[in-house]
Amino acid sequence: MQDEPALLSVCTTCRDGREKDTGARGGSRLAKAIHARLDELIAAGATLRGVTCMSQCKRPCIVSLCQDERFTYVFGDLDPERPEHIDALLDLVARYKEAPEGFLGRTDRPEPLRANILGRFPPTRSASLLVTHLDPIAAE
User: Fold this and answer.
1) Residue 85 near residue 66 (C-beta atoms within 8 A)
2) Hey, what long-range contacts does 98-103 have (CB within 8 A, 24 or more apart)?
3) What is the per-residue pLDDT for 135?
4) pLDDT band for position 52 (50/70/90)?
5) What share of the chain in percent tops pLDDT 70?
6) Using CB atoms within 10 A of its CB, is residue 59 exposed (0-12), middle (13-18) or buried (19+)?
7) Calpha distance 35→89 (Å, rounded)
8) Domains delineated in the chain
9) 3-state secondary structure the chain
10) SUPFAM superfamilies from the entry (predicted)?
11) Over the stretch 91-134, which tens digit does the pLDDT of each residue have?
12) For the segment 101-110, what is each residue's pLDDT rounded down to a tens digit?
């Protein structure tokens, strides 16, 4: 499973407020910036896809990273004009691929992504200590 590529999804319709100046939506520009480094992304262990709206309009630009039987991460407030955000995403993929179940604590993530996390979701059959089974509540 670890040899299969992870999937980095980019919301291509995110607006970052610079559409008038740039002629393109922030999400589209972010996708292009990542795509320009596609060889590095593939070498780190991921593939890239665009998604038309990831429903996080208050925190654009949005990406998610997932893989079967591994944690899923969602990050927002990424800036397509900041190369350190693209560098951090490439670094994130490499760290994700090495971590058991893809679990990355705050300090395990690249610095530019620590404050940008919007969600971390465990795989369905996770062995992580973060996941606890909740017994059905008994009827009173």
Assistant:
1) no
2) 101/69, 101/70, 101/71, 101/126, 101/127, 101/128, 102/6, 102/65, 102/67, 102/70, 102/71, 102/73, 103/71, 103/128, 103/130
3) 75
4) very high
5) 96
6) middle
7) 12
8) 6-121 (3.40.30.10)
9) CCCCCEEEEEECCCCCCCHHHHCCCHHHHHHHHHHCCHHHHHHHCEEEEEECCCCCCCCCCCEEEECCCCCEEEECCCCCCCHHHHHHHHHHHHHHHHCHHHCCCHHHCCHHHHCCEEEEECCCCCCCCCCCCCCCCCCC
10) Thioredoxin-like (SSF52833)
11) 999 999 999 999 999 999 999 999 999 999 999 888 887 888 78
12) 999 999 999 9
